[in-house]
# Entry
Amino acid sequence: MSEPRQTERATGESEGFLQTDEAGVVTAVGGDIPELFGVERGGILGEHVDAALGDTAVARYRTAREQRREQQFDTHGVDGRRLAGTVYPTDGGTAVVLREVVGADDRELGASERALEALHEVTTDNDRSVDEKLDRILEVGAERLGTSHAFLAHVENGTHEIVTAVTRNGDNPEALSAGTTRPLSATYCRHTLDSDRPMAVAAAGTERPADPAYERDGLECYLGTTVQVAGGEYGTVCFVDSQPRQEPFSRRERTFVELLTNWLHYLLEQQAYQTELEQQQAFTESLIDSLPDPLYAFGDDGTLVRWNERLVSVTGYEEASLEGMSPWEFVADGDRERIEAATNRVRDGESLSVEATLETADGEQIPYEFSGAPLRDPSGAVDGVVGVGRDISTRTEHQRRLSGLLETTRSFMQAKDPEQVAEIAVSAARELLGFEMSVFRLYDPETETLTPAAMSRRARESLGDRPVYAVEEGFPGEVFATGEPTVVDSLRETDRGPDDVGSAMYYPAGVRGTMSICSTEEAAFDEADQRLLALLATSAAAACTRAKRERTVRLAQERTERVLDRVNGLVRRTVEVLVEATTREELERGVVRELAGVEPYAFAMVCRPDVASEQLSPTAWAGAADLPAGDWSFPLDGTDPLGNSYRDGEPQLLTTEGLSGEGAWDRLAATVDALVAVPLVYKNTTYGVLVVCAEDADALDERERVVLEALGRASANAVNAVERGRILDATRIVELEFAVADRDLLFTRLSTDGARIESAGIDRRGSGGAELYLSATNVDPDAVLDRVRDDPEVESATCIVARDRECLLEVTVGESLLATLTEYGAALQGVVAEDGTTRVTVELPYEAEARELFDIVAERYPGTELLGYHERERPVETRQNFTAAISDRLTDRQETALRTAYLGGFFDWPRGVDGNELAEAMDISRPTYHQHLRAAQKKVFEELFD
# Structure
């Protein structure tokens, strides 16, 4: 420590100080600094010390900081005042003491310097603790101020507590001992806290005899100032004595106390920081040790440097053994290479998790998940690895069980029947839950009992054959009836189970049965076991349902395949009959023959109506030889089921029981149990009834009826086709002429207002409608076209050709009387409508029911009038006749033009020859050639269509 500087005798005692942080920024100002520098008290705060001191002082300041020892200097203040300064390095920064040199008092100046040097020595002594430094600073202050006592007090919520105290002459009185508390209102410190400068009392008995502090403690002398810690008011630093001072405290003494307090501030800040750091560290340590999982940190050399208590307890290593171990030393041999690679990846800055087997000190292996992240230094560089390990034994076991359950579910899906499902479930219970005794019971709806369908080997050996339970009987019966599982922790106490069983779980498998799992130990099942059994039982129930359904479907499919084989053969042979038959009689005989020859049909017949006698009579039959169907008849008056089926046009399933009586039904009832009556309906015409009988009523199920109805429709279509074809081949025909005045007929509606509408032809459409070609005369072509298009029956209309007062129209309709007539075998000879009446002339085969056709028309259009009915012979026209007729009408040139055009490919597309070439071949002009060709084509078409 340097010797006190000799200075001039002062005429005043101006003195102050600056406190800076480690960066040289002024953090505190005390004493007479504002007067010495001519600034406001806050004018220097926050400024760098260079701005307040001269170059020489700044150089000494920096030397003091670098060499960590005090430095003295001279500088100048405001108005050229000469200032002497001393720089004292401290732990938190630097203290700079300045005093004006005007002939100083050597004695007091020396005391201040010695005290400041002593304070510097205390604050830079690293061997002292913070508490020791606090006490020594208080001692130095008491020596400098000449008081017998000094203390540091903490003030909070109106309470004054002495934190530490020192004395210069013996022990502290009890009132000034550390830990003593009193109301703030009973202390001098209440005044100090209200002032921004040190508060001084030299002789309280004279100056403040009524002050509560004086009355309580009798302290005559007091000098105190406030202490700030962490930006807030902490308390006070006080120097006291029970004896009054001869002289008041000088300005230099008060400045000294301010500077001393500033050093105390840094010590208290350091103490508070250290305390907080220790608390935080203790909290962190406690938090780390409270973690349920091992925590670890490896240094940059790859060795363990930090861990928690959990790592010690899990691994079984001693604390001394853990330090220096590498990550891969904690895992099984097979995982070491993978852990080493993962550690290297974390060192490269990657965060990751990896599963491995932890191996303890005694060789136990436990599945673990290790998570690691880079450990970085303040610069951000990776200097280690930090992580946490988690025991995943439960998760691994859970995954194993779920995986096993998934495999079991797949096995369930392949089971062919509920019994196989039961076997799979029992095996899965042993493998997934680890319990050796299990029983699966299936519910038998016929006996309403639960029957053991599968048992584990251990259950069979230990428990023997298990009983069959009724619903609500025993634990299995109860859980099946309620649908709620039951877990019995002590089966022996219930007296309801085998003696060798300690506990058991009973679970319903839906409506399919129950599953029981037993253990020799009591309370052997935890929640995980119960949840897994619930999943297993639910999956087994679904599998039983699926297996039963598939078995039913399989049996039904097999039966269906047998039926389809039979039906396909029947349909194929019947269709061959329908296609090959040339007459209705041949068609009917073939159909009943095929039906009667196939099981389960015993007899089949076709009945035709006789309109005159109002009876249905069999016209073809086959099957049971003793049924004389030729003598039977069935009335159409509504009293007979077959007659009703014909009249209603609806298929019927009839049983012969209750229908027996005289005649046909009596004979049928003696031979067959049931029959299906299928009307042979085509469009609006019913040709008769197809009857198919079976000896067993159950044989005629829904599938059979569908097949028979389809064959009935096909037969009706075939009958219609035969009837239509007969007109083409018939030599004897019936010509039928009738008139329709009903405006529901399109022709009739269009023939009003003097128009004459004539049918020029008809084409059937594949979609079910018809194309009509109508010739209209005595009409305005545009007006009649608009009228036709507006008709609700017409879908579309086009004018093909129009001349004055006449036109040819192509009309599309959804349904037409002309199409209906052709469907029933009639050949249209003429359709002419005039003055609201349509005259229709058709030709029918001689054998056809002309009356029935007329009734159909009359029913559709009431008021229809029969105009004529003629029977006559029709000559047969051969191809030679047709060709000769055309040749007779063609001239030689016309026939030559037509033949050359046909043979030359003129009608092909694209054309093989054009008109110029053909005209040149005939040695005529092109217009002349086309004139001959057009005339020939017209004559051919007239012969074809007229």
